[in-house]
Amino acid sequence: MKHLNIIHPSFKHGSNFQIGEFNHVFEDCEVGDDVKMRSYVELRPQTLIGNGCYLDSGVKSSGYNLIGNNVTLRYGAIIAREVTIEDDAFVSPNVMTVYLSHVGDKLGGTVIGRGVFIGTNAILGASVKIGQESVIGMLSVVEHCVVEEGCMVRANVTIGSRGQSVKRQDDGSLKGVKVRGGVLLRRGCDVGAGVVINRGIEGNTVIGEGTSIGPFSDIGHDVEIGKHCIIGAGTVISGYTEIGDYSRVSPGSTTKNRVKVGRNATVAIGSLVMKDVDAFQTVVGRPAVDIDEFRRHRNCLKKLLK
């Protein structure tokens, strides 16, 4: 090993291990065969690393980490306490993982699944689970969330943040309500750039299997969206809304809170949904009405304007 490293005597490494300079390895750490560690890396106690891994300069583990085979950790990545990274994952530069809550509670380590890609400057909160072959885009923040396998979360997305969860008091002031839920992204979801998905208050906010959410949409707390839905860009889905399987909510639309949109329904572009939408129904307008009613109103207006 090169000089200028601080290596605890209990450290174990496999064959063909390469190490740079100014590294600090604590007690009970192990790395496998064909591991390359650059400079200024810090491995705290009981960091276990598999075969064929690459640790770029400035990578830091907080200890009690389990890192699989063929994992790449690029420069400046911070691996929090108890984080598990499975085989073939790629963690981009300056990614931050978290172990504690904002009030210091120990929430447990994040799990990054097999073949996951985490983009540059992304932040993963405590106890987040990222399913295999999923992608978390650069600058995204994911907390209080389970992401199932094969999901695509694009750049600058915020998932699991606390929404506008307040209640007006008798004196007119506002007080935050207790938030217990999280977010569940079912397998194969595609979440567009700049989307915000708020964590549930009472249960989870759920995005169904294979659903696609367009850029810059806002999904409120405790919303449940079914499978294979299309949520257009710039859509606002208010809290406790339910959207059935295979439905389409077109770009620029807004739903009132606690609205139910049935299976295979369509909300036309720019609509304001103030009441429930039946299965297979198409609504349009502000406020949204059935498309046949909308056409009748439009024809009457044309006659009046003649």
CATH superfamily caption of the largest domain: Hexapeptide repeat proteins
Terminal CA distance reads 89 Å
What structural class should be given to the helix and strand makeup? mainly beta
**Principal-axes shape call:** elongated
Number of strands: 44
Supply Rg: 24 Å
Report the β-strand fraction as a percent range.
25-35%
Give your account of this protein's structure.
With 306 residues, this protein is mainly beta. The protein has two domains: 139 residues, 3 Solenoid (UDP N-Acetylglucosamine Acyltransferase, domain 1), CATH 2.160.10.10; 136 residues, 3 Solenoid (UDP N-Acetylglucosamine Acyltransferase, domain 1), CATH 2.160.10. It is 5% helix and 32% strand. The protein is built from one helix and 44 strands. The chain has a 15-stranded mixed beta sheet. A hairpin with a 4-residue loop joins strand 43 and strand 44. It is elongated and about 90 Å long. The termini are far apart. The mean pLDDT is 95.
Topology of helices and strands:
Layout: E1 6-7, E2 12-13, E3 18-19, E4 24-25, E5 30-31, E6 36-37, E7 42-43, E8 48-49, E9 54-55, E10 60-61, E11 66-67, E12 72-73, E13 78-79, E14 84-85, E15 90-91, E16 96-97, E17 111-112, E18 117-118, E19 123-124, E20 129-130, E21 135-136, E22 141-142, E23 145-147, E24 152-153, E25 158-161, E26 166-168, E27 174-176, E28 183-185, E29 190-191, E30 196-198, E31 205-207, E32 212-213, E33 218-219, E34 224-225, E35 230-231, E36 236-237, E37 242-243, E38 248-249, E39 254-255, E40 260-261, E41 266-267, E42 272-273, E43 282-284, E44 289-290, H1 291-305
Parallel strand pairs: 1-4, 2-5, 3-6, 4-7, 5-8, 6-9, 7-10, 8-11, 9-12, 10-13, 11-14, 12-15, 14-17, 15-18, 16-19, 17-20, 18-21, 19-22, 20-23, 21-24, 22-25, 23-28, 24-29, 25-30, 28-31, 29-32, 30-33, 31-34, 32-35, 33-36, 34-37, 35-38, 36-39, 37-40, 38-41, 39-42, 41-43
Antiparallel strand pairs: 26-27, 43-44
